[in-house]
């Protein structure tokens, strides 16, 4: 049949689309995949794709082929049994035979749709399919033992019931592994198996019938028994060998292959099934299938092959015998027609896949069937078998969404099998050998199939043209939003990503609605293109083009604001036109002042002692890895050294570096507290000089690495983190890690070693300091990993170091604790319990935020385990760190209690915040409670931090406190965005949504204060807050009677920011040019009404949010 001209083709079905497949990948996967997934999908090598496709074919298709072959043989072998004496043995006549044949189709038809709906709930389809194969194998075996007509009807009924699920299940399984343009050839192989089954059935019957009389059974009985036992074995093999899904096929797929197969299915599923899985029957989807007019044209096309096909298959042996052949020869003579049908079935399907056009390859073979029956040539056989291939592939191409696809596949096959019921009666024994009813009905149905196929082609082309011309107003007037959401084909363009451009794929009104909103795109032929998508809107930021609907666009806007700032914020040096000339190990950090004074003199003895005392009393909260009395001894040694000799203090360089770093930390904390009421950042001149001196002493250290070398650098990392010099802290910590491993601090001491093998007597102080130093480094490693979104260095499987003992520094000696040691609470408890919490935090990062592909169930299981472990950690806290009110404790213990309270709240947020991304309408009990625990932890953290803000010495004691504020506030803002979907009033029980948001904005203000260097956090949160307010505004627009709508609309005009946010922006928002650029990134079009960037968030986006403040290069 001639191919239609381009002018008459449906909008999305021109063959030139095949040349644009790769560009369509860019267009249609942005909306549902992370940038990493998108890059992986686009860059997957073509040669690997072909190799992977072959691997899938060899693993999946042969088993399905054999299963369907057995299905077919077991279905039609009653025809072979008939000519071997079935009827006289059971006292049946021709009408009884027709009844026995047709009874099979009643459960076979009725059970196909429910079977596929049940299959949808099985994580492992192989179990379900294997079970039904074994069941009908048993029934088939029992058929060989029936004694009368009634028993035969009963077993045929059960056979139809169990066989019903195999073929639609196989089609559904193929659609889960292959893209639509790849399905037809694979489905064709199943139909080839069916065609071949006629040949095999006759051949097997010929061989098995020779067992007539063996064991006292007739030959026809052995046909059922042996073929039934073979079916049982195939069912067992199905359970063992049938692949279920790429994610469950790690034994024969590589990780990259499984990821690629999963992602390419996501490109089709992410838009066509936006609501995710439901646990009840979706009647709207079921109705959309039943009411879809396309299905009924396909149904007539299906009947055009099923009626002649089944009729001929059940009657073929009888027809051959009626021509005068004996039973054996009659069995063998059924083979040539089926062989011809098998070859044509596969050949036509390959051509249909090659040209990506279904209709001609339905019509062409049907014409052959019409001609064949017109001249009453029974040997035309079942060449019509390939029609079913095209019909089912055509159906898959025009059904979006896995639910509709599953139901429509089963529905079409189910209704099509009514043709088998009809075909069971059209060949009447009394009309042999001419069979006018059989041949006439077959001719009529074949001709009807041609009319249906041609009509469907024309109607789809007409429908596509009408849809392409509809405006948004016409769509909105005709359909509600809910109706558009429930329409059967909401995102047909998704299929075009991988080349399914069947010439009659339907373009739905929902798709055209989206196209109309954003204008008509044009392709090379000048036609309106369905490939124009709202998800492709881009925005330019500093010369870089970003997807406006990206889940992290708000972070890019924040970095644009930072890069546009002028004045006091040093982050401009990261993104400015002239990069600041710093070492790569300090890139982006606030620089140290470079002048002639490179070393600091030792302060007077009184000042030095006061700085050391201030460090141990105020600064060292839980990182208590130094032995206080020993540090005072080092100070006395240093006080005796002239200032001019400090740079040459190499023999004791690490000890002097420790003392100088303590000076630096204490001096900086004092500067922070003094400047807490000032409007400028502390200059840190004195503290920086102390630090530079310590750094110089460490760099000049000679000899072998020592415990003090590690402690000095650990203190330096703490100072760098407190002064927000994160890059230099990261690289300094890397050197520290190597020294830690070299000294074996991560390993338990089985025998006392002195430095490098000296077997001296145990030194209790050194042993305890080794433990303290390692666990302080371990805790810092965990928090750096979380705060910066980077991998951990210490792995629990490599660590067997014990935790330090709970003893007071003043009450231990080199020999051990003093015998008269008091029972006072030890400050080392804070380090011990913080280290234990760091272990849980590391486990959460590894198991919940794993970059490896793990199932949702595995993540939820990890969350449940961590939930229990967190509760156990809290229950084991000593009273002064857990149950006693912090205000009742001495200052040093109070700081530890508050620090662990914040650390515990942060751990809860870190573990549970991924649950915020779950569909708010379908939260299970565990998920809902996890979301509540996350929000309660955020509330506790914000209330604690809000109370700490007036206590400068407490607020500045923790280097990671700004991150905890950021984490808590971002959790509340994201929860508010999610709550806007259903206009929820409460996020946390007992606290209104408005109160929680007000608390979050107050905490954000603490980050915005210009006397801190954490304005990066504030700016990112400011953009996230704007997203939350936009989302709430859209939610109120969907509820026009809400009394808050007018106030919210007024507040959101122009996307105004609150006063707190303007304060956070400071100089950033005073720039007219920047504001214009920032406004250009807002959504002002129709997409803004429906877009929620969290719909596209993945677990990894939480880590990118964490790292965004310090690592803009990732964007």
TrEMBL record:
UniProt keyword annotations, A-Z: Membrane, Nucleus, Transmembrane, Transmembrane helix, Transport
Domain of life: Eukaryota
Pfam families xrefs: Fungal_trans, MFS_1
GO biological process annotation, one example: DNA-templated transcription
Segments crossing the lipid bilayer: 58-77, 97-115, 127-147, 153-175, 187-208, 220-242, 409-428, 434-460, 954-975
Subcellular location, record wording: Membrane
GO molecular function list: DNA binding; transmembrane transporter activity; zinc ion binding
Residue stretches of biased makeup (Basic and acidic residues): 1044-1062
Residues covered by region (Disordered): 519-540, 1035-1077
Major facilitator superfamily (MFS) profile domain location: 60-520
Primary localisation category: membrane
Membrane topology category: Multi-pass membrane protein
PROSITE patterns: MFS
Database matches in InterPro entries: MFS (IPR011701), MFS_dom (IPR020846), MFS_trans_sf (IPR036259), XnlR_reg_dom (IPR007219)
One GO cellular component term: membrane
Name listed for the protein in its UniProt record: Major facilitator superfamily (MFS) profile domain-containing protein
